[in-house]
Specification:
Elements lengths: L1 H7 L22 H7 L4 H13 L2
Length: 56
């Protein structure tokens, strides 16, 4: 919440929120399988950050 508030208050802080949209998570299985199915594993997080930095 602190990072989102700082970014929203025009302090020049860049914040990329990564998480599940306002929907039910996809997939069933272990914690790691569900994270991967929703793009929240290490590779999915890396890809989101990579796209974010490329869009700047």
């Amino acid at each position: 919440m602190i990072a989102e508030t700082a970014a929203g208050d025009g302090l020049g802080v860049k914040v990329k929120c990564i998480g599940i949209e306002d929907v039910f998570a996809s997939g069933y299985g272990t914690h790691n399988q569900v994270r991967k199915a929703n793009g929240l594993d290490s590779d999915g997080t890396y890809q989101k950050i990579k796209r974010y930095l490329a869009d700047e």
